[in-house]
């Protein structure tokens, strides 16, 4: 793993993007690539769409749900629909009462409904029974017969109906005017909801044991996307560059998937599981897809996080489903991204809800993998950024017993990756990928891909025929530093910033072994008021104590310059202090670089967050105090050194600051010249690597929100 190479010191302040980078840190001082754009992986999504894929979960769930709703609707329609009643005039009704043919009535407002003892036909077939009504047109055309009737009582009727009914022994009911009884309203109003809730509860209960209906509803279906070898452009090893050693390790798998019989015949045990580990964006997914592409087998891709739902047991059945699908399509590859989402060591980590669910899912994966006897022709590939937190059970023989590290590419690797991604891009004659590769230490495949895309966008906006080197360098600068921002600084503030940056830069130039200064700028970018960029000649893999001290001196140079020139300090050094303190802390607690503390690792392991020393619960209070004292000593000594050096070179500092103030941006040559120093490094591209840290500037009231960033 390469370490972070370049240093950017800025004047500005606040939130440190590096924190997150450091979480990815393996061993050594690692400042992960600052330009790592989280979530900006345009390729994966679009590629996935472009490829043929299907998502078996889902559709069936909707089918079942629709079915339920239709049944619900039909039932409620049947039950709620009023029965067909004979609509009779009030006079006819009275007649029937007097004739003793009414068994029961129910009044709803002025409407009277009821039941005749014997069927009545209306309109009567013999029209002469009531001569008075002969002239009236019949209410409805065809005579109908029923024992059920309805009639409307005229509101002016004051005809002693009640007495009549009582006399005739008719049962009389009354109901509120809304016709649907309350119990029915409740049942049909809340019924569907109750039904669904009941179903979910039931599912939750039984899913722990099996798939059951949840399968029918698609809940237990794995959400894996399937890429078939036929559909879409195939990913091959040609698309993967710069990680040749890793490619070699997986070639055997390709061969196995192509000729499973040959391996079977010889009884060779082919790895069932391959664990790819490495920082984000290094091409783990790409590599797995390339293996599938090379072997011409289907590729099932799923993120481990997708297994987990709120409902316990769903994850396990999704795993089962995924393995079933893959076995059906064998030979095939199952790719599980972010394996750590389920593969975290059991009984460790925060006990969140869904803890059981995660364990069950993990157990299911283990069970499935144990179930293979190698003849299925299914290879499971998984990726993780944090192999060290995985449950050891996953790594046992017969599971993910083949482990492959995918490291960030070195310079040559970066050049090859750039070549892959510029295949379809018309390049100007001045574009030199080797130079770009050396200007991008710490960048991984995903970053480089992003860089090419940004450069192409820029070239298009500038109406270039081809993408030129300037497009690349500007794109790189923007990715690394953030877009330039139009904010108005007071002349005093600009001058102060110029001194601050000059302080960083001058110490970078004067400290032996420090990374050469590449660029200084007082154009506000992102959240910083100014930046100083330093990056090494070559990729660095480790750091010496002297080098780290130099870094701290440089980081404190901005504040020292302000202090020296103005006799006062500002909030602008917030990030510098944070960065310096972090380095010092790690020197003392992690790398044993403090004589007083000794060669002891006392910091919690940054990867597992478990305290390392001394009795396993963390350092004893005395050790802690000693660490703090040592960190403070280192910082104070470095600050004193920075202040002294700048004092001794006050003329260079003034000259550099003045030049910077006038020019706003200086590249390496200009900067060394302004400081009256010979250039140290062949200035290749005046582009850097490193980012300024966003933050808040309490002095000016500007906040660190990523608000409107205006590109010039
Ligand atoms: N070695 C490489 N060669 C060519 N392209 C690469 C390489 N590494 C990454 N890329 C590009 O970056 C994209 C993202 O990489 P990929 O998704 O494979 O990274 P990953 O290691 O799986 O990251 P994560 O851990 O975030 O899932 C790829 O689709 C590819 O375009
Ligand atoms: Zn600074």
TrEMBL record:
ATP binds at residues 278-285. It is a multi-pass membrane protein. The keyword Iron does not apply. It is found in: Cell membrane; Membrane. Its main location: membrane. Homohexamer. It comes from Blastococcus deserti. This is ATP-dependent zinc metalloprotease FtsH. InterPro entries: AAA+_ATPase (IPR003593), AAA_lid_3 (IPR041569), ATPase_AAA_core (IPR003959), ATPase_AAA_CS (IPR003960), FtsH (IPR005936), P-loop_NTPase (IPR027417), Pept_M41_FtsH_extracell (IPR011546), Peptidase_M41 (IPR000642). Belongs to the AAA ATPase family. The active site is at residue 501. Keywords: ATP-binding, Cell membrane, Hydrolase, Membrane, Metal-binding, Metalloprotease, Nucleotide-binding, Protease, Transmembrane, Transmembrane helix, Zinc. The keyword Cell membrane applies. Residues 270-410 form the AAA+ ATPase domain. Residues 682-691 have a biased composition (Low complexity).
């Amino acid at each position: 793993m390469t370490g972070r190479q370049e240093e950017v010191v800025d004047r500005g302040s606040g939130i440190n993007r590096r924190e997150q980078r450091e979480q990815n840190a393996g061993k050594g001082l690692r400042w992960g690539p600052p330009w790592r754009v989280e979530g900006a992986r345009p390729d994966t999504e679009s590629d996935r769409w472009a490829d043929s894929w299907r998502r078996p979960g889902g559709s069936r769930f909707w089918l079942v749900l629709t079915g339920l709703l239709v049944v619900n609707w039909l039932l409620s329609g049947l039950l709620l629909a009023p029965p067909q009643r004979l609509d009779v005039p009030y006079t006819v009704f009275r007649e029937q009462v007097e004739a003793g043919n009414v068994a029961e009535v129910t009044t709803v407002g002025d409407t009277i409904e009821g039941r005749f003892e014997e069927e009545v036909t209306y309109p009567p077939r013999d029209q002469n029974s009531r001569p008075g009504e002969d002239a009236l047109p019949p209410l409805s055309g065809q005579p109908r017969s029923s024992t059920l009737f309805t009639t409307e009582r005229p509101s002016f009727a004051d005809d002693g109906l009640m007495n009549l009914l009582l006399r005739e022994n008719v049962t009389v009911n009354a109901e509120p005017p809304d016709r649907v009884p309350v119990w029915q309203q409740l049942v049909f109003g809340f019924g569907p909801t109750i039904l669904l809730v009941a179903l979910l509860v039931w599912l939750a209960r039984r899913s722990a044991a099996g798939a059951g209906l949840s399968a029918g509803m698609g809940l237990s279906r794995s959400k894996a996307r399937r890429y078939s070898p036929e559909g879409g452009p195939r990913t091959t090893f040609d698309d993967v560059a710069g990680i040749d050693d890793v490619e070699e390790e997986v070639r055997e798998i390709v061969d196995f998937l192509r000729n499973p019989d040959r391996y079977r015949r010889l009884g060779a045990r082919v790895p069932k599981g391959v664990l790819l580990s490495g920082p984000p964006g290094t091409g783990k997914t790409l590599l797995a897809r390339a293996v599938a592409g090379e072997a011409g087998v289907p590729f099932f891709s799923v993120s481990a996080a997708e297994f987990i739902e709120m409902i316990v047991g769903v994850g396990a059945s999704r795993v089962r489903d995924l393995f079933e699908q893959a076995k059906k399509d064998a030979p095939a590859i199952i790719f599980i991204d972010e394996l750590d989402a389920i593969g975290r060591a059991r009984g460790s980590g925060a006990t969140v809800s869904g803890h059981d669910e995660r364990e069950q899912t993990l157990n299911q994966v283990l069970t499935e993998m144990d179930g293979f006897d190698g003849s299925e022709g299914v290879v499971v590939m998984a990726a993780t950024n944090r192999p060290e937190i995985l449950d050891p059970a996953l790594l046992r023989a017969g599971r993910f017993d083949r482990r492959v590290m995918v490291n960030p590419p070195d310079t040559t690797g970066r050049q090859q990756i750039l070549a892959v991604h510029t295949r379809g891009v018309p390049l100007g004659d001045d574009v030199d990928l080797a130079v770009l590769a050396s200007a991008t230490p710490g960048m991984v495949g995903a970053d480089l891909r992003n860089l090419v895309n940004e450069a192409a966008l820029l070239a298009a906006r500038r109406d270039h025929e081809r993408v030129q080197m300037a497009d690349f360098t500007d794109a790189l600068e923007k990715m690394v530093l953030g877009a330039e921002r139009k904010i108005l600084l007071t002349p005093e503030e600009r001058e102060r910033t110029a001194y601050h940056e000059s302080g960083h830069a001058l110490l970078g130039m004067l400290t032996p072994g420090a990374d050469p200064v590449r660029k200084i700028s007082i154009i506000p970018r992102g959240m910083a008021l100014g930046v100083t960029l330093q990056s090494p000649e070559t990729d660095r893999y480790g750091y010496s104590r002297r080098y780290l001290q130099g870094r701290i001196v440089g980081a404190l140079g901005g504040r020292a310059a302000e202090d020296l020139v103005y006799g006062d300090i500002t909030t602008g050094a917030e990030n510098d202090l944070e960065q310096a303190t972090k380095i010092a802390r790690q020197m003392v607690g992690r790398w044993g670089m403090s004589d007083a503390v000794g060669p002891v690792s006392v910091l919690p392991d940054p990867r597992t967050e478990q305290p390392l020393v001394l009795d396993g619960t963390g350092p004893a209070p005395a050790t802690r105090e000693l660490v703090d004292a040592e960190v403070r000593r280192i910082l104070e000594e470095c600050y004193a050194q920075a202040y002294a050096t700048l004092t001794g070179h006050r003329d260079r500092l003034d000259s550099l600051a003045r030049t910077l103030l006038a020019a706003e941006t200086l590249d390496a040559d200009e900067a060394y010249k302004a400081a009256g120093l010979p250039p140290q490094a062949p200035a290749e591209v005046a582009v850097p690597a490193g980012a300024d840290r966003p933050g808040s500037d309490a002095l000016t009231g500007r906040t660190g929100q990523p608000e409107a960033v205006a590109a010039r």
